[in-house]
Design a protein that fits this description.
The chain has a two-stranded antiparallel sheet with strand order 1-2. The protein starts with a helix and ends with a helix. β1 and β2 (153-154) form a beta hairpin. The protein has helices at 5-23, 33-60, 66-89, 95-117, 128-146, 155-189, and strands at 149-150, 153-154. It is mostly helical and 190 residues long. It has a single domain (5-189), classed as Four Helix Bundle (Hemerythrin (Met), subunit A). 78% of the residues lie in helices and 2% in strands.
């Protein structure tokens, strides 16, 4: 297993997941809700930035690896899924939205794995739809974690709208990937 700064940043993103969750299990006498929400949103933002930064560094320094290509999307999916489940627990996101986003991640991950096994992974490579979905999620989640006005901006409102946009983009991108893979799915099922 290679180890370099981009992979270390990816591992850091995974380590942040239990930290964010633990914040919501700390007794109120230790940590008030506003402080907890601020710390959780801040940690999520740092984790989201490492997602962009690790890929940029890996390409810039020519440190891409098969392990990094595997670990990076796993870290992303774990981070988003954990945050959505946490937001669901504290009543800041709807069950249907969490299910759509997490269900899509599982479906497309399985599709990509299967397409890679049959040598057709190029047909389900990341598209601009997936990038828009990811951006909407990565802005919505810290807004929903923070859940207060920030410099007059109602983050709960912004997060609520963006998580719906992310859910719509999630369905759209899933349909896009399934449509691209459909000829291969039909060919292999006969």
């Amino acid at each position: 297993m290679p180890f370099n700064l981009p992979i270390a940043l990816t591992w850091l993103r995974i380590v942040f997941i239990p930290l964010i969750i633990a914040l919501y299990y700390v007794p109120y006498s230790w940590l008030s809700d506003p402080l907890r929400d601020t710390i959780a949103a801040s940690v999520f933002i740092v984790a989201a930035l490492t997602d962009w930064f690790d890929g940029w560094l890996a390409r810039k320094w020519n440190q891409t690896s098969a392990f990094g290509a595997f670990l990076d999307p796993v870290a992303d999916k774990l981070m988003v899924s954990a945050a959505l489940l946490l937001l669901l627990k504290i009543g800041r996101v709807d069950t249907a939205i969490a299910f759509i986003i997490i269900g899509r991640e599982i479906t497309i991950s399985a599709l990509r794995e299967w397409m890679a096994q049959i040598g057709a992974s190029a047909s389900v490579a990341v598209s601009w739809l997936g990038k828009i979905k990811t951006t909407a999620q990565m802005v919505a989640i810290p807004c929903l974690l923070y859940y207060k006005d920030l410099y007059g901006i109602p983050t709960r409102w912004v997060g609520g709208i963006l998580i719906v946009v992310a859910a719509i983009m999630t369905v759209w991108s899933m349909c896009y990937y399934l449509k691209k893979a459909w000829p291969e799915i039909l060919r292999r099922s006969q």
